[in-house]
Amino acid sequence: MASTSATMGHLPSGIGICTTIPDILYLPELIFGGLVWILVACTYVVPANPQGWVMFVSVFCFTMTFIWMCIFACGVHQNSRGWATADFVYHGVAAFFYLSASVALAKVTIDKKDDTLFNYRLDISAVVFSYIATLLYFIHTIFSAWRWKSF
């Protein structure tokens, strides 16, 4: 298990992102965000607006998290307070976006419960994975805030 004391006061680079909290959360965020993206894309979109927001959030957060992970893995950041602040802000915004998308997706799913069982199961799975992604981004935000404050 990764130690939080290893993350205080510096930003990891290279393989260090796989061993420190909160950076170890990049991969689960990508996995669950990708699952939301795939499951929503597989369902029949009746109310296009809420589903469109969910697709935007999942694609945006998946892409930005992948880019953010690559920046940290390649060591492009210079271990500065600015990068720690940007990490905290990005994950806070992503958590807020995912929470709003999760609520919209849950509302659409509740309204569509008379749909076919297969589509309803896909929608339920998307809602569950969306809330898991929200939780992961929220936890990442908290640990990023602690790291930012210790800089």
Automatic annotation (TrEMBL):
The keyword Cell inner membrane does not apply. It is a multi-pass membrane protein. One of its GO terms (molecular function) is structural constituent of myelin sheath. Keywords: Membrane, Transmembrane, Transmembrane helix. Its main location: membrane. Residues 17-149 form the MARVEL domain. One of its GO terms (biological process) is myelination. GO terms for cellular component: membrane. The chain crosses the membrane at residues 24-46, 52-76, 88-106, 126-146. InterPro entries: MAL (IPR013295), Marvel (IPR008253), MARVEL-CKLF_proteins (IPR050578). The keyword Cell membrane does not apply. Pfam families: MARVEL. It is found in: Membrane. This is MARVEL domain-containing protein. It comes from Esox lucius. The lineage of its organism: Eukaryota, Metazoa, Chordata, Craniata, Vertebrata.
